[in-house]
Amino acid sequence: MGVDIRHNKDRKEPKGQDIYLRLLVKLYRFLARRTNSTFNQVVLKRLFMSQNTTAVVVGTVTDDVRILEVPKLKAPGTPHSHTKPYVCSKGRKFKRVRGRRASRGYKN
What are 26-77's pLDDT values in tens digits? Predict the structure, then answer.
């Protein structure tokens, strides 16, 4: 018995009508398609996220009335920063991979 993937929960384009966001999506869609880099694919996926969960800022923020307000973000990896990196899942169930636990697909 397999685990079904919910395809109605993965976005293919951003919901917002921000023109700068649309341009970034167009750029990173091209980069993700033409290069073999997973970084570009991750950036593209995070540009699709809703406004309060967008975890990436690309380029400089200009003074334009059409652009969204971006809150001040701390970044992991900067000197003297104790910010933790972006991790989707934490906890005992997530540390166990498939085959090690019954609720994670199967258990032998």
Answer: 999 999 999 988 889 988 888 888 877 766 666 665 666 666 666 777 777 7
Q: What is the DSSP string of 46-57?
A: HHTS-TTT----
The proportion of the chain whose per-residue pLDDT surpasses 70, expressed as a percent, equals 74
Q: How far apart are CA 71 and CA 24, in angstroms?
A: 19
Report how many helices (DSSP H) and strands (DSSP E) the chain contains, helices first. 3, 0
Q: Is 61 helix (H, G, I), strand (E, B) or coil?
A: coil
Report whether 89 contacts 79 (CB < 8 A).
Answer: no
- The domain ranges of the chain are 7-70+78-104
**One-letter identity of residue 17:** Q
- Host H or E run for residue 33: helix 19-34
